[in-house]
Specification:
- The protein is an alpha+beta fold.
- It has helices at residues 20-25, 33-36, 51-54, 56-67, 155-158, 189-193, 195-199, 222-227, 235-238, 280-287, 306-322, 331-335, 406-427, 441-453, and strands at residues 48-49, 72-76, 85-91, 94-100, 106-110, 125-126, 130-131, 138-139, 145-147, 170-174, 177-181, 209-218, 252-255, 259-264, 337-342, 346-348, 355-362, 365-377, 390-392, 432-433.
Length: 471
């Protein structure tokens, strides 16, 4: 479907200049059908209420009605490879154990002792049993009660075995990712991921390893942090140094039933630069971040483009690891940002981009978030162990994580805005945030689904976080 064929979408919505599909037409390699799909969607032009970012009450509704009932990415399977391996996954003030079982399956339980409620585990690790550090109540890995110290004093526990079996969350896996849903009666994960599953059949994320994992505390609501990575419209003001080689406003935005994506082409200048005269060598130098007083390490041959030349360099970079499979991949898969999102907060990128984002509330504080970037890389031979998480504090720059490379500089520019957006929304007299119809339609899609999960008429819980502040 093209924009002009979609009667719901304003036909004047696309930026002048080369479209993403035009660039695919000039690709030097065959293009997968999944990149030829177009699904623009008009989701209205109404503002989104700022209470979704600033209201303590709205945050509590999200916890009660969404985070407690939605599928969410908890870890990779390689984080818990052996029986007894476990990780702690937390969302808002909720804490869950994700545990590898003796038969290789995975179970998840609320991280709370059924005796007095003490948190069962505080750190990721390995165990042969799940024993509470407070009084010693213990459970087998499968959640069945194993030991009650001084059991003679608890005959009533024996009489209520169902009440003292660790309650289970729903667990499922896709492409090496482990998802949990606190609701034991949740609908299948495949229903929530939707088209994402079919699209990623061309990019095998299961045969990857976590080469990098970096998290940072953000002084803003989790949606503010997430939305900064849901559109390329901000590049002009936030990342002006990459306008030379990034087709920001010519990004293709697609909204499918259960997932969305923004495809931003690389190796092509931003239309916002107008008639600036850029050679292919200029594009290559900019993409490689070559200083003005240094010679370019790449020479663009006559009749060739920087986009095609650097795409081939990327193929050769990955060839020793993945072999001739790189010859089946288009220039787009080598060069472009293929940013997918599955509701509510899971952002895997297609092809060899390696990026996976996750955004969460920081505990029970609706004005603070955790942003995470995982780098999933192909490997040859035995899978390397997953990288340890690098945890950055609220004042630590992303560049303190060398594994991110140039991404660290870009993230630092993004973070510069986030706390100021939160402060501005707390201050403004305007009741809503305004989004474009096309370029920011992924954000509109996220808020549309959020509104389907969160009901304003349902009473809210109080929450337990020490950081919680009334709006």
């Amino acid at each position: 479907m093209t924009a002009t064929e979609n009667s719901e979408l304003d036909t004047g919505a696309r930026s002048p200049g080369l479209s993403y599909q035009d660039l695919l037409d000039a690709d030097t390699h065959p293009v997968h059908e999944v990149l030829r799909l177009e699904s623009p969607k008009y989701l209205g032009s109404e503002d989104v209420p700022i209470e979704r970012y600033t209201s303590r009450e709205w945050h509590r509704r999200e916890v009660d009605q969404m985070w407690s009932k939605v599928w969410q990415f908890a870890c990779r399977e390689e984080h818990i490879p052996e029986a007894g391996d476990y990780i702690i996954y937390e969302i808002a003030e909720l804490s869950f154990l994700v545990v590898r079982q003796d038969d290789g399956s995975i179970k998840s339980y609320p991280n709370a002792c059924l005796h007095r409620g003490r948190q069962l585990k505080e750190y990721d690790g390995h165990c042969s049993e799940i024993r509470c550090p407070f009084h010693g109540f213990a459970w087998k890995l499968d959640g069945n009660l194993q030991d009650v110290p001084a059991a003679w004093d608890f005959p009533h526990v024996d009489q209520r075995p169902d009440d003292f079996t660790l309650p289970e969350c729903s667990v499922d896996t896709w492409a090496g990712f482990v998802f949990i849903n606190p609701d034991p009666d949740a609908s299948p994960l495949a229903e929530q991921l939707g088209d994402l599953i079919e699209h990623f059949e061309v990019w095998n994320l299961e045969d990857r390893y976590v080469e990098g994992h970096v998290s940072r505390i953000i002084e803003a609501n989790w949606k503010i942090a997430q939305e900064a990575f849901c559109e390329a419209y901000h590049v002009n003001a936030t990342h002006p140094q990459i306008l030379t080689y990034l087709g920001d406003v010519n990004s293709q935005v697609d909204v499918f039933e259960n997932c969305s994506r923004v495809i931003t082409p690389g190796g092509t200048p931003s239309p916002l630069l107008g008639d600036v005269d850029l050679t292919e060598t200029d594009l290559a130098r900019a993409m490689l971040d070559v200083r003005v007083d240094h010679e370019s390490p790449v020479s663009i041959q006559e009749g060739h483009t920087a986009r095609a030349t650097l795409s081939q360099m990327t193929r050769e970079r990955w060839r020793p690891i993945v072999g001739d499979a790189v010859d089946q991949m288009s220039d787009s898969e080598m060069m472009d940002s293929l940013d997918y999102t599955a509701f509510p907060n899971f952002h895997p990128w297609g092809a060899f981009n390696r990026i996976v984002y996750r955004f969460r509330p920081n505990g029970d504080d609706h004005r603070s978030a955790i942003m995470e970037c995982f780098l999933l890389s192909p490997f040859k031979g035995e899978r390397p162990p997953p990288a340890e998480e690098i945890k950055l504090g609220v004042d630590d720059p992303w560049t303190d994580a060398p594994v991110l490379g140039m991404l660290g500089k870009v993230f630092q520019q993004d973070v510069f805005n986030m706390a100021k957006v939160q402060k501005g929304l707390e201050t403004t007299r305007k009741p809503g945030a305004t989004f474009s119809n096309y370029q920011e339609s992924k954000i509109r899609w996220l808020h549309t689904l959020l509104g389907e999960w969160v009901n304003d008429d349902v009473p809210v819980s109080v929450g337990t976080g020490a950081k919680a502040r009334q709006s």
